[in-house]
Amino acid sequence: MASKHLYFLFISLLVIITRIPAQNVSDQPALDTGCIDFISPKAGRIIAGTSCTLSIETCDYVKSLTIKARYASHKPPRKIVTDIGHLTRPPYKLIWQTDSVPNQLVDGLSFYCEALLRNGTKIYSFHEGIFLIHNRFSTDTMEIPFHPAGKTGLLKKGINITGKDNQLISAKTFLSWNKENLNFDIRVVNPAFHSSMSPEKMKKAGVEILIDHTLRRLPYPSSDDYVLTIPLEGKALRTMYMPEINVKDQFTLKKRQEPHTGTYTLKKIDFKGFTVNASIPLHALGTSIPESLGCNLIIKGFDNTDSLITLSWADAQGLDRYAPILWNTLQLKPLPLYHHWAVRLIVPFLLGLGLTFALAWISRSFKSKQNTVTKFEAGEEEKTQLDKIQTVINETITDKNLTPALVASSVELSTSKVKQIVKKYSGMPFHDYIMHLRTEIARERLRSSHSSEAFIANSSGFAGVHEMEKYFQKFHHTTPYKYRKEFHVA
Q: Which of 38, 322, 427, 463 has the lowest tally of Cβ within 10 angstroms?
């Protein structure tokens, strides 16, 4: 009987020994070979909320887990490692609040999990490629005009890119599109640039044009994005980013480069800067012309110590400049009608048919916009009456009580006669003619003074700002505010 008990005791000890791993002679944790399994979040997961739920499955002989997170911070640029929690029994699950963590883009954040086994040894595992996009993003939108020849330099509006902490480098970019290309004219001002720099440094400087034509707005670049790099030394290359999740459930961002298929020119001027003209073929962005697309421009130049300075159109730093979710939006203005083949056939015919009507309309429009009374042939008596009416109007134009009856009593004519003469020689009814003259007075005061719109409206004879705005729109097709903003003399 005793031998039977000893036999069962031996078997039990043997089972326990085979189930517990051998004691690790080192105090350092060993890399896990299959005991720790991250159930969630999976690699490549994009989390938009302010919390992240971690769920981990382990082997039976795990005693406890310690979990840490490693993420990037830009102010100042550094990597932060923080403890998330210590779990002592299954199920190994916790919720991590990410309110204070900045958005994690491109590289993402990683989790470090250290397991303490029942025999006292430690093993660890990494879980990478988790992206946070919970903080608010702000991007700009710009329209791109159509130009068949791609002459972007003729455009008035461009993108200004300047540094926040220094003025050693700045850039202005003009854009246009045609049926074949998206055209960029990038003019970089960089007084510290000089061509005697080493080729290695010159290869690191230049411009990068990043296009997201699908508008998927991912937190990392993908193979759908067109990333064009034009260095100051060497050839222009297109970079292809390929996100992958390997067999170990780890996120990796691989890349390969190929020659740029579009045209480009590079001009460098010592102690001034450089200019890049580049065309990206639209067929490389997809099978059809997109209505809008994401875009970022990265400018790389030098400071006074020949160190690299980097600017970005998108409000981002470091690797986040390559995150499409932060890129601004470009809207392609519709193709003008006169570039359509049907319109090119119909328009000349309609122009010839309606030439007479067009000339008549132009003539009437010109007469209605004249600032002074049109000169017609008239009798001496009517000219004298007209001169008297004009004199009275000019002297009382800012009087809010100015009426045809008031003018008629001053020139000893009937009210209907005054209206008739004004209508005949101005092409406008009496009231419109008075309002037109008042807008001329207001325009001069808006242009040359700093008085408020309310003061100018009152002193010009209008009942108020609302009435002044109404007749500015009618006669000048703008508002007092816009007129002052465009023509004001400082």
A: 463
9-23, 45-59, 428-442: segment of lowest average pLDDT: 9-23
List, in order, residues 6 or more apart from 397 with CB less than 8 Å away.
Answer: 434, 437, 438, 441, 461
pLDDT at 4: 42
Sheet of 264-269: strand order equals 159-162, 170-177, 181-189, 273-281, 264-269
Q: What is the pLDDT of residues 382-412, one digit of tens each?
A: 888 888 899 989 988 899 889 999 899 888 8
* Confidence band, pLDDT 50/70/90 cuts, at residue 359: low
Q: What separation in angstroms does the CA of 468 have from each of 172, 194, 401, 433, 461?
A: 38, 56, 16, 14, 9
Surface-to-core class of residue 52, CB atoms within 10 Å of its CB (0-12 exposed, 13-18 middle, 19+ buried): buried
**Three-class secondary structure assignment of the chain:** CHHHHHHHHHHHHHHHHHHCCCCCCCCCCEECCCCCEEEECCCCCEECCCEEEEEEECCCCEEEEEEEEEEEEECCEEEEEEEEEEECCCCEEEEEECCCCCCEEEEEEEEEEEEEECCCCEEEEEEEEEEECCCCCCCCEEEECECCCCCHHHCCCCEEEECCCCCCCEEEEEEEECCCEEEEEEEEECCCCCCCCCHHHHHHCEEEEEEECCCCCCCCCCCCCEEEEEECCCCCEEEEEEEEECCCCCEEEEEEEEECCCCEEEEEECCCEEEEEEEEEHHHHCCCCCCEEEEEEEEEEECCCCCEEEEECCCCCHHHHHCHHHCEEEEECCCCHHHCHHHHHHHHHHHHHCHHHHHHHHHHHHHHCCCCCCCCCCCHHHHHHHHHHHHHHHHHCCCCCCCHHHHHHHHCCCHHHHHHHHHHHHCCCHHHHHHHHHHHHHHHHHHHCCCCHHHHHHHCCCCCHHHHHHHHHHHHCCCHHHHHHHHCCC
Q: Read off the pLDDT of residues 179-232 as tens digits, 9 standing for 90 and up.
A: 889 999 999 999 999 989 999 999 999 999 999 998 889 999 998 899 999 999
pLDDT at 363 over 90: no
Residue 163 contacts residue 191 (beta carbons within 8 Å): no
For the chain, the straight-line distance linking the first and the last C-alpha, in angstroms and rounded, comes to: 113
Per-residue pLDDT tens for 125-164? 989 999 999 988 888 888 888 887 666 544 457 889 887 6
Mean pLDDT of the chain: 84
